[in-house]
Amino acid sequence: MYQAVNLQFAQQDSADLRQLFTERARAMVPMLREREAAAAQARKVPDESIADLKAAGFFRLARPVRFGGIDADFDVCMRVIYELAQGCGSTSWVYGVIILHNWFMKLWPDEICQEIWSIDPDLLISSSLQPRPVTKVEGGYRLNGDWPFSSGCDHSSWVQLGGVSQGEAPRLMLVPTASATIIDDWYTLGLQGTGSRTLHFEDVFVPDAFTIAYGRLGKIDGRGNRAHSGSAWDDTPVINASDAFASTILGIAARAQDLVASTLRTKVSRGLKLSEVPLHQIRVGEASSTIDVARYSLIEGGRLLAERIRSGEEVTQLDIIRRMRDVAVHIRRVREAVDILSMSHTSWIYNRDPFQQLHRDVFTGAVHFSARWEEFVQPAGKAVMDATDVE
To answer: Which residue among 91, 106, 121 closes a domain?
Structure first.
């Protein structure tokens, strides 16, 4: 579909990359909408959609050139996630999760990255990050048990797991997906196509070399040993997880807004066009304001953060706290905006109405830990009242 990914992309200006891949994602929206019902029914993203995402070069955005990637700023990925969500929320979610795991690979030694990506330049990595009990043995760890919520595991070759052995700090582990049994337990209200199934391991050995300290996730030193190399992948801290999930929820909400607005423009009740009814105008006006503000804060805010990093400016712990606060608050408000829109689109109660899937997808996505706004607002409030930088 597209030319092969090569060094040419990495030599392009960030703005050019942003425009190119945003346009590619938008071009996929009609196709993703055609496959949306199939994804929900199969409870996984269709193989054809994964193949199309690979062909577009999307999975290589968050990977350095030396490992066959494009090395784009993370806000380019956010825009792709947002656009894909207007075609299929589940596809967008899985893409966002997998691209995050490419970003997480910066925490691993180059030798491990080379070993993983040399097998297949488009290899996909899923995860189940909540640390589960593991057993320390000579030379590594033994895994026995279940790791849930592994979005996209049906398409992944490797999985990053959280594990904790008695008396030790948690570890992040890199394990072949083929060593797990995938339990078909993903029956949900929304985002059915993410296939976020449980992985079951029985007596699986993980060498020490394929584990690292779990605590490096989400820290300002989460750059491996490669800071200031001039690479976006190397220089950007691993603080982007919440941004990916929020971009999917925001994209679904924008699609819901467009659906309601277009319906009200054409629907007539009791001789009156519904778009002329003040009550509907108020609802759409309030919801669209919430969605627009969230889009500017998250998407444009991501671009500004990328520019700061590119210029060599340090990202502080306070920056991280504020970013996670904003993501959580915007997810909450966007969810409320979709609820407001539903009151002006009452036909969503019918299973055949497309708004119902969007409504369920937003509410399902908003259950994610990144949307627990109280947990992220509280430390931000403390930092403001302390009026000091967070160490």
So the answer is: 121
Q: Is 221 among the domain residues?
A: no
Residue type, 39: A
DSSP at 221:
T
Separation in Å, CA 187 to CA 141, 180, 197, 371: 31, 20, 9, 21
State the residue range of the domain holding 98: 7-121
Residues of the chain with pLDDT > 90: what percent?
Answer: 65
pLDDT tens-digit map of 303-323: 888 888 878 887 787 888 888
Domain tally, the chain: 3
The pLDDT tens digits of the residues spanning 16-61 come to: 899 999 999 999 999 999 999 999 999 999 999 999 999 999 999 9
HSE-up of residue 11 (Cα within 13 Å, Cβ side): 4
The structure tokens listed for 181 are 């049994």
Find the radius of gyration of the CA atoms of the chain.
21
Evaluate whether 55 touches 67 at the Cβ level (below 8 Å): no
Of 207, 248, 240, nearest to 105 by C-alpha is 240
Final residue belonging to a domain, choices 104, 121, 138: 121
- What kind and span of H or E run contains 103? helix 89-104
